[in-house]
Amino acid sequence: MAVPIPSRQIFIDGEWREPLLKKRIPIINPATQEIIGDIPAASAEDVDIAVEAACRAFSKPDSWASTSGSLRAKFLRAIADKILERKIELAKLEVVDCGKLIDEAISDMVSVAGCFKYYAELAEALDAKQRIPISIPMESFKTHVLKEPVGVVALITPWNYPLLMAAWKVAPALAAGCTAILKPSELASVTCLELAEVCRDVALPPGVLNILTGLGPEAGAPLASHPHVDKIAFTGSTATGIKIMTAAAQMIKPISLELGGKSPILVFEDVDLDNAIEWTLYGCFPNNGQICSATSRLLVHENIAAKFVEKLIEWSKSIKISDPLEEGCRLGAIVSEGQYEKILNFISTAKSEGATILYGGVRPQHLKKGFFIEPTIITDVSTSMQIWREEVFGPVLCVKTFATEEEAIELANDTHYGLGAAVVSKDLERCERLTKVLQAGVVWVNCSQPCFDQAPWGGIKHSGIGRELGEWGLENYLTVKQVTQYTSDKQWGWYSPP
């Protein structure tokens, strides 16, 4: 049964508005390659109007910034409830919009609601954290701290987890008292536009959240460089992150960046093979391999490598590849033709450089349409190969062996990226050692990819700046103000009176 796509406009100041240039972008279902609808394409002029609306909502006398955390929490919980009411509908929209399989999409909607609820709690707690006294060494002064919203924020999000990545930014920004302009990827914007409808349903004050869809150069770039935007939060490619950082630097504007990755998973010889294999697959192939933190570089001890890879292929052959709306599907379609061709080019280059495509790397024979690629396992890889060093963003796993712990660490850290890393071993003392030396913002022990609202998320090196989620995610959108009062009736006495 076809999934109907709502026809929406851009969302500014609490209202649907047609873009000034009246342009629209087609939506292509990655599983069928059919056009199933379209989204509005905002321009720089629309960005100006949205930023102006966010500025008004932030600075007017009864502004969002001046409301209590407890009031903001009520809106966040109402948004969460509406998301849960519509979770199946929203999940199906994401499936046809970006190729995500239905089970993952439903799970994502539950996570979206959970994120809004979590930041509702932190918004309430923020009220109690105002006017925190600071101990100082002079009795004639008293000092306290105010935590205030940073202002109008630009939130630029990717296509791999469309509504979830939006929630990771929108929820803490609104909890902090910021007003926002959300710019989702043009490749997957449908559920983010439905978030606008949810905001209308819960009567979120006009201008607090504005949502602009459109192309990066026409809408994203003007938003990132807008002089009245006080902060930029971006998730996406490292190349685009560099452009955003450059634009922000011209105005000394704060940024947070969650960028690319080429994360390792280290499997030692003492593991339970089946457990380690499942986590290896789960670290790379969910969401069709389109995960910034994918542990796509497998480092396996040489003593178990042959048996491990043999069983890894057996497991990979059992992964169901189908229309992502089908029950039991475990690998869906790549988001777009451009991304599909990019992945195939990575695989072709790996082969031409001397690597072995041990399994997969092609379209499944039973699927004649759609951007589908079999889970791919590549061996005989050198550390200088493109496939080992660059982010593929698809269902591609590279395999290398190691002989010693020291060699494994050196191979794991030999990358420009530093988002995630995983270590699998029954030796917990070894695991503890590795958590300290692996160069990544997130390290998983005997697992890969679990993520929780309460724990910080982000990378080092070329994988980004700052942290999302947890209390760290809220701090992204707050500034700290020191307030110091002179409490004595006596004259200060530095200058002599005339």
Automatic annotation (TrEMBL):
Active site at which residues? 258
Gene Ontology biological process terms from the UniProt entry = cellular detoxification of aldehyde
Record Gene3D superfamilies: Aldehyde Dehydrogenase, Chain A, domain 1, Aldehyde Dehydrogenase, Chain A, domain 2
**PROSITE patterns from the xrefs?**
ALDEHYDE_DEHYDR_CYS, ALDEHYDE_DEHYDR_GLU
Q: What is its EC number?
A: 1.2.1.19
**Pathway where it operates:** Amine and polyamine biosynthesis; betaine biosynthesis via choline pathway; betaine from betaine aldehyde: step 1/1
Tell me the keywords, alphabetical order: NAD, Oxidoreductase, Sodium
A GO MF term: aminobutyraldehyde dehydrogenase (NAD+) activity
Q: Which reaction does it catalyse?
A: 4-aminobutanal + NAD(+) + H2O = 4-aminobutanoate + NADH + 2 H(+); 3-aminopropanal + NAD(+) + H2O = beta-alanine + NADH + 2 H(+)
UniProt domain Aldehyde dehydrogenase: residue ranges? 23-483
**Signal peptide as annotated in the record:** none
Q: Which family does it belong to?
A: Belongs to the aldehyde dehydrogenase family.
Spell out the protein name for this chain.
Answer: aminobutyraldehyde dehydrogenase
